[in-house]
Amino acid sequence: MRDLPDDPIERLIALLARTPGMGRRSARRAVLKMLMRPQETMLPLADALTEAARAVRPCETCGNLDAQSPCGICRDPQRDRHLVCVVEGVADLWALERAHAHRGLYHVLGGVLSPLGGVGPEDLSIQPLLARIADGGVEEVIIALPATVDGSATAHYLTDRLKPSGVAVTRLAQGVPMGGALDVLDEGTLAAALRARRPV
SS3 breakdown of the chain: % helix, strand, coil, rounded to 5? Predict the structure, then answer.
C-alpha cells in the first residue's frame, strides 16, 4: 500500500490507526502489547483477519455480513418471517441484535437518500426490498433509519413505495431517551417527542 512506512512496526501502527476508533496513540499501545506476545496475539489475529477477508461477504437476501449466504439470521427458523426491519447499514443491524430488540428479519439499504451527496434510489438496496415484499409473507416493515433529514426523506420515500403492497409500515419512535433531561435536549428531539406522545 502506498504512503506506508517501510519499518514493519511503524507500518503496523499506521494500518491500525486507520481503523475506526483507533487513533495513532491507541494503535501504538496496541502494537506494543501485541509485540510482547506475538505467538498469543499477533499470529492468531493475522489468521483471523485473513480468514475473514476470504470468507465474509454480504448476505444475498438481507445485506448482512456473514461467512455464509444467506446469513445466520436469514437461515434462523426461530425468526419471525412476517417482520422485516429496514436499516441503513450493517452496524445498525448489529446494534439491534446486541439489544435483542428485534426477532424478525432485516434488510440493509446500504445508505440513505442524499441529493446533495449524489445518492439516489438506484444507489440503495430498495428494489431487492420491494422484491422481498412482493414475494409475500411479510406483514410489517419497520423503518429503523437515523433521525436525520436524509434518514427522514428515505423513510418517506420507502413508505410511498411500500404502500401499494398493503404491508403495515412502522417507524422507530423518536424523542426523549431513557434518563434524558429535557433541558439538555435539542429542539428537534423535543418536538419529535411531543408529536410521538401516547396515552398512559
Answer: 45, 15, 40
